[in-house]
Amino acid sequence: MTIKAILFDIDGTLVDSNPQHVETWDIVFRRDGLTFDRQTIHDQIGKGADMLIPALVPGADEAQRDRLAAAHGALFKERYLDVVRPFHGARDLLATVHAAGQQVVLASSASKDELDHYLDLLNARDLFAATTSADDVEHTKPAPDIFAVALTKLASIEPAEAIAVGDTPYDVEAAKRCGVETIALRSGGFSDEQLREAGALCLYDDVAALLAGYYQSPLARRG
Questions:
Q1: Looking at CB atoms within 10 Å, which of 104, 131, 205, 219 has the fewest?
Q2: Are the C-beta atoms of residues 135 and 112 closer than 8 Å to each other?
Q3: Which residues contact 191 (CB under 8 A, 6 or more apart)?
Q4: For domain 18-83, which architecture applies?
Q5: Angstrom distance (rounded) from CA 7 to CA 112
Q6: Which sequence spans correspond to the domains of the chain?
Q7: What one-character DSSP code corresponds to residue 15?
Q8: Average pLDDT score over residue span 160-184
Q9: Are 163 and 182 a contacting pair, CB within 8 Å?
């Protein structure tokens, strides 16, 4: 089936922000008397705070979850947001997809404020047909909500006519629950095994590698 829409994750996919999110969570948890090694935190990156905190702190009550989530958002914006940079080739890939007549969609577990910042950072507002952030859904990835809402914003697009591009197993799982296949990128720091076990359609090193192989990739599928 012809691919008409590409649903892009952003953190770890289009922008190199996963290390900063690990650092932010580490600081926030330590301030609350909680200690995790960095790999344990990294393995949860890709989830929004609503899913990440219960995974690492299953005994947290609502007040603690809200406090940790707010602290993470504030610290990330204050200390790290302005130092995050796009991956090489990120905007060029978006422009290539747009020029091919495919709808470009941003489907992220990031907050709307972060998403707006990244749209400007990528200089790509004119390329996106729709965007979805954590503010638009009840649950973030790996719940299907982010991709499900994104699909509703596209006119007459069936799940089989879309492909997601992400960097975490949670992108793959969330998209799969909506009937959407995912191209997984290694740029987020997850292993090939983790990405394949989640059900990734195929793997590329990063957006630059996907751009270089665009016409041979599932993105260019025509019927």
A1: 205
A2: yes
A3: none
A4: Orthogonal Bundle (1.10)
A5: 16
A6: 5-16+86-220, 18-83
A7: B
A8: 97
A9: yes
Whether this prediction's pTM lies above 0.85 is answered by yes
Same fold, 5-16+86-220 and 18-83: no
**What does the pLDDT look like over 43-100, one tens digit per residue?**
999 999 999 999 999 999 999 999 999 999 999 999 999 999 999 999 999 999 999 9
Helix residue spans in 131-200 (DSSP H): 145-152, 169-176, 192-198
Query: Per 3-state DSSP, what percentage of the chain is helix, strand, and coil (rounded to 5)?
Result: 50, 15, 35
* Secondary structure element (H or E) that encloses residue 181, with its range: strand 181-185
5-16+86-220: CATH architecture: 3-Layer(aba) Sandwich (3.40)
C-alpha distance from residue 20 to each of 36, 59, 112, 220 (Å): 16, 25, 18, 32
Two structure tokens written together for 87: 């991956």
The per-residue pLDDT of the chain, averaged, comes to: 95
For 201-221, letters b (16+ CB in 10 Å) and e give beebebbbbbbbebeebbbee
Q: How far is CA 155 from the centre of its chain?
A: 22
d(CA 190, CA 182): 15
